[in-house]
Amino acid sequence: MRRWLPPLILGLVLAIVVYNLAMVQIPRTLMSFATGRISKLAGYNAMAATPLATDKARAIVRPSPDLAYSSCPYDVSNGPVLVDIEPVPSRYWSLSVFDARTDVKFVRNNIDAEGRPIRIAIALAGQPVPDGMQAVRVDGATGIALLRILVEDGAQFPAIDAARKKSSCKPLS
Hints:
By secondary structure, the protein is an alpha+beta fold. The chain is about 30% helix and about 30% strand. The chain is built from three helices and nine strands. The radius of gyration is 20 Å and the shape is elongated. About 25% of the residues are buried. The model has no long low-confidence stretch (mean pLDDT about 90).
């Protein structure tokens, strides 16, 4: 039995290391890479509206050509970030907030919003958020808020594009 104890302990240690790598470090690394890449469009804490996806587009992994994307790579290390989404003239649109571990912390679509704007404050635990504003608490200081809008017909895109550019993302200070 003593001959098996060192290999069992080594196997247990390796399992813990692999688990930590797979479940903790890889998602954080991938999100850090994605946030940095998207931040090149307009910087952190700013909303960037990208053109409709083509077969060459890769700012977002495997983008759908039927969706218009606006993204806000956020950094709440200096305080909360306000995200204001104005309703868009499309049959479907949604806002999702992803934290530093790629976890979805908030999702709301046009049906849930009932035709009203979505106004949230992305914040770390303990950061104050103004009264009346919905707080979205995230793990880790950086992440991405992503607005997706269905574009059923290319002729609709100019109106959708104009409406989505009214949405914003900025520090709350």
